[in-house]
Amino acid sequence: MHLVTFERREPEQSEAVSDHSMGDMALRGQGIETLEEGASGSRRLGAVLRTGPHAGHVVDLNRALAVRLAEEDAGAPEAEANSLLPHDMLAFLAEGARARSAAESALEFARAALESFDGPDLIRAGVVEPRGRVRLCAPVPRPGKLIGVAGNYAAHAAERGADAPPEEPTLFLKAPSSVIGPADDIQLPAASHEVDFEGELAVVVGKRLREIAPSHALAGVAGYSVANDVTARDFQNVRGQHFIGKSCDTFAPMGPYLVTADEIPDPQDLELTTRVTGEVMQSARTKEMIFPVAELLAFASRLMTLEPGDVLLTGTPSGVGAARTPPRWLRDGDVVEIAIESLGRLHNYVSRPPR
């Protein structure tokens, strides 16, 4: 599945769903006249339809499950859907296999319903939303822990001055408050004039991991996403403020999807490309990591418990702005695009807000 966290852009414009439009879905006579209106701005758990005439549309998974339960004569379908399938990503990941099964069931129901009923009916019911009517947030808008890895590609470590590959991973933390989604701007702080980009593979933890062996670590992964470990180099390097240089507001763009692990058989065989305003800056494959995903998770879990919804940023390839002559810092008006094979493209505009 391509899971997303989304917000509806505007209140639903349609009136309550009519008898003839959704009657066959048994929305009437099941304890509800219609589904409760979805409020704009509230974050919801969704899945993107990948094929067919509605490709790109977003299925509201909790809402789809409620309709399916209503069709099955459930007495309180919305309440039951809420108990089976949280509409918050962190709660969904914490729930584990039961929520995953409910999400798959809801998505399959929506696909089948699109084939059996008119698409406009599902759209009026808020089960399926056209892409233009939703705003994608980061898949995990506020991770419990956001862990980065320094110098995990040999070529990047060399361009940053390392003489030899490290013997063990070097981990650091970014503030979870730095996370933004694909619809948000990277905002340049007034205090920094050397803001850099770092395209990275993001790993989302799906199970509690403590002292896990590398051979078992990938079984604890919920899925993967695209991320940008934006960095204020003039704080990270010159002043030694590594944490704050990594943790400025908007410095962790992520998205557009959380692609579930079953769709990524080998996270070490993905192409990663970073472009800044159309120019290719980074191009590598994840097999070039010094420490692969499984080893990173195992190493981190030796000293801290990794929990569902934690996010691991696995390091960046060579080509960052700081290593160029002259350096290529992000500027107001830039567009940063990071693409990872099978995971999609993360686009973010860069802006310097007025003081």
Give the structure's gist in a few sentences.
The protein has helices spanning 19-22, 61-71, 77-84, 89-95, 97-116, 119-124, 154-159, 214-217, 233-236, 242-246, 293-301, and strands at 2-8, 43-48, 58-60, 128-129, 134-136, 146-150, 170-174, 179-180, 186-187, 195-196, 199-205, 221-228, 231-232, 252-260, 271-276, 279-285, 311-313, 335-340, 344-351. By secondary structure, it is α+β, with helices and mostly antiparallel strands.
Please describe what this structure looks like:
- It is a single chain.
- This protein is α+β, with helices and mostly antiparallel strands and about 350 residues long.
- The protein folds into two domains: about 1-135, no CATH class; about 145-350, Alpha-Beta Complex (Fumarylacetoacetate hydrolase, domain 2), CATH 3.90.850.
- The chain contains eleven helices and 19 strands.
- It has helices at about 20, 60-70, 75-85, 90-95, 95-115, 120-125, 155-160, 215, 235, 240-245, 295-300; strands at about 1-10, 45-50, 60, 130, 135, 145-150, 170-175, 180, 185, 195, 200-205, 220-230, 230, 250-260, 270-275, 280-285, 310-315, 335-340, 345-350.
- Strands 1, 2, 3, 4, 5, 6, 7, 8, 11, 12, 14 and 17 form a twelve-stranded mixed beta sheet that branches. A five-stranded mixed beta sheet has the order 9-19-18-15-16, with no helix packed on it.
- A hairpin with a 3-residue loop joins strand 18 and strand 19.
- Helix 2 crosses helix 3 and helix 2 packs across helix 5.
- The relative contact order is 0.16.
- Mean pLDDT is about 90; it is low at about 10-35.
